[in-house]
Amino acid sequence: MLIIFSSSSTATKLQRLGSKMSSIPIRTPAALNDSELHALLLQYRRENWRGIQTPQWQERIVDDILRDDGEAVLQQLAGFWQMPSRARVLDIGSGVGSFVVSCRRRGLLAFGVEPDRIGQGASLTSIQIARRRLEASVFAVAVGESLPFADRSFDLVTMNQVIEHVSDQVAVVREAVRVLKDGGALYVACPNYLRFYEPHYKLFWFPLLSKSIGRWYLRLRGRNPVLLDQLTYTTNGRLRALLHELETGYTVVDLHRERFLKKCDDLSFASRRARFVAQATRLPGLGDLITWAALLFLRLTEGGCEMLILREPRLT
């Protein structure tokens, strides 16, 4: 059951959040203890992901959610973008609110939007859980294609494992950069469907497998294909093409590519094989070709894609 706004005044208030966020006090998370949160998360996963993921996987994911402190996403920004103090953050597809809660604990003005249409649909929704984790009213039921915020409202906008779930990727990206401040950053992470793996069903999967064959395969494996119809296959190349459609004034950074090149420069790879490749990229005459081949291999085999879109500061 989807939560809707109970009154027009509530909707209007959310639409004005972009211009009023500085007046909203940061509050500490409400007294929802870990055992209560664990029980709610398990109920949500079992209702919404029944037939999509096994009960074992549902429990593992709940444990991962409880351990998530938001640090992984924030670390990806280091070295590429400086987070302002008291930054305003929007998490598109905020789910059960983990990243927003983590940002609030760091003193950031964080907000989340979530349509909650993933999976089977159930009486308990992710945004209901998110709203019980914070006292402040910072979560809105909304879709990424139509954000209820004013232009240039946020320093940081995140879409972590979200873009593959939206119906209109172009519209969502345009909305994300619309609400992004000058000098702000948009972080996008998504699965790589060139791998032999489906990350939602946790199954072996042929790259870019047709949906008709995929539905048959899922039923053969005893899974419900309802989520497959809600997915859009994403790859590094497709995400790059989508982001490069933005008008001028933005810089797109492929975080996986940049981290690989940095490790090649300082030979900081953990594995001996990777260090050998890094040394080979320095060979005269062959280095550029080896680098190109290594990056191509990375795009084909990486578990996911991570991009950072930097909006240029306005000249004064």
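Above is the first protein from milestone M3; the second protein from the same milestone is given next.
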Amino acid sequence: MEQRRAGIDRRSVPGTAPSITHQCELLGISRSGLYYQAKGITDEEHELMKMIDRQYLLTPFYGARKMAVELTRQTGLPVNRKRVRRLMQLMGIRALYRRPRTSKPSSGHHIYPYLLRDLKITQPNQVWAADITYIPMAKGFMYLVAIIDWYSRYVISWRLSNTMDDDFCVAALEEALSKGTPEIFNTDQGSQFTGEAFTGLLKEHDIKISMDGKGSYNDNLFIERLWRTVKYEEVYLKAYKDGGEARISLGEYFRFYNTIRPHQSLGYRTPAEVHGYIMENTVTKVVKSSVTNTVGMAGLSLSKAPFLSY
């Protein structure tokens, strides 16, 4: 929106073409929206956002109404439901549950099917997934996007941003694709993932696109678990003073998460061990079989080194 507002030539003289009204129409913004100035976030609202974030990890099925009731209980002060809804929208979160299809999706983008239902995921680089979460800081907040390998839980790339534009998501995807290529890429239906910049990049690499049902928690369960782990083991223990400190600290944590921290679901191995070990065995089997069956090596992507973004 800010980029579109910046594209308006406000020096336009009445009676000349194009007028400011016509420029607004061409750029898809209202005349009143041109002069709108967003209200800043107060210190009180920053504290509420931190509380919402913590509560959301515990009860992701809470909508604004129940969240407002819970915050009222915790603070002992009345918390307005509309205010909570506005802050949840700003944070990019919504109650997660299976919703009936009572309305059609907007015509602004193509909706892709969910391809992971009943799919057996048996190796790295079969399915990657991406999501965005809110990161609180001492003053203010940022957004974190991460791309993980579904099988090994390996964090392939990540980026921080102070806006919800799609640029940081595309940058994370470009880095991830420089290190490997999945068969399927799964996201939610957020505008950062449905835009042409993101989906076009996936299509260029012949990757199948999968998208969750709106508000469905289980469709992208593993990355939701990643957010819970990152926040309880890293974010909530720190109070990042700025984006630079957050990047350094999160970089150190993701290195720990990928290469040192054992995962119970992985047989107490690290994501790096599972990701590298499975790929190495796959290559070994192909090499052995190629002696007798002449199996081609094209398409294999070795991903044994830790993938970290800064």
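Note on the second protein: The CA atoms of residues 61 and 92 lie 14 Å apart.
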